[in-house]
Amino acid sequence: MVARLEGALIALELLIYVVAGATAIAGGAELGLVVIALVGVALAGRAAYVITAFVLARHRDPSAPRLAAGPTVLALAGEWLALTLTHGPLQAMVYPLLRRHLPCPGDKQAPLVILVHGYCCNGGYWLPAWWRLRRRGVAVLPPPTLEPAFGSIDEQADALHAVLAREVQRYPGRPFVLVGHSMGGLIIRACHRRHGLPATTRFVLTLATPHRGTALARRAWGHNGRQLRPGNDWLRSLEADGALAGGFTAMAARQDELIRPWDSALPLQARERRVIESGHLLLGWRRPVLDAIAAASRGSSAHDPPPQ
Description:
Layout: H1 2-26, H2 31-58, H3 69-98, E1 112-116, H4 127-135, H5 153-170, E2 176-181, H6 183-195, E3 201-207, H7 222-227, H8 233-240, E4 249-253, E5 272-276, H9 287-297
Helix pairs in contact: 1-2, 1-3, 2-3, 5-6
């Protein structure tokens, strides 16, 4: 559904640019200048979104860390690129074309890495990380898309359970490493609460996950969007049930523009908490994250497996 939605939005945006460009050319403007201007408008609009979201997320948030100018500019530039690629070619075009042709890890006994996407995303978000992990020799599965896209987090947790059950049957005895970006971390915790995780799960990592919700979700669509709002009953019940408490590592993006309060990504239930110089979307592609996943897949993580 996300691919179709984003494909429709891209088509609408292109139509607007074509109409605007044709109007400008009919008025005597040069074709080359019109193309440059329209590309600039498209890129500037995405940059404005990133900056606006960052300012809103930091407004009156006492938990937000102090930021240095240089790393923050680089992080926001990287976030602009991640936004442009994710909510564009990766999710709308590349992933739908490749998803049935992505190679599986094979029959080695290395741990299987499963990458869980977040809100308003599909498996296409993970393609840059998936490709780089495969180049490192990590046994990473093709990223699944969990439906319904705007249903409840529990429904997406059920879809994740179905994926895990299928892979357990396909690769009996193989260890698992689970990585959830943003809402994906909550999907993993909800799956643990509802079904348990495979007994061979070795490592769980949440990235920029709003464990206590985020104020920006007040503008989010769908049932799962409402479940991301701070203080809602679903989040409180997840915390009260101790879902995966003490059994996961949490990483936060220092320049996160979508999580408020910022420290919602670093819950006390996590056994390890780390902060990475990054924006929200870019975090899943950052080298320290890939290093942690690769280390866990090699069995070099010092952590005990998560509770079952």
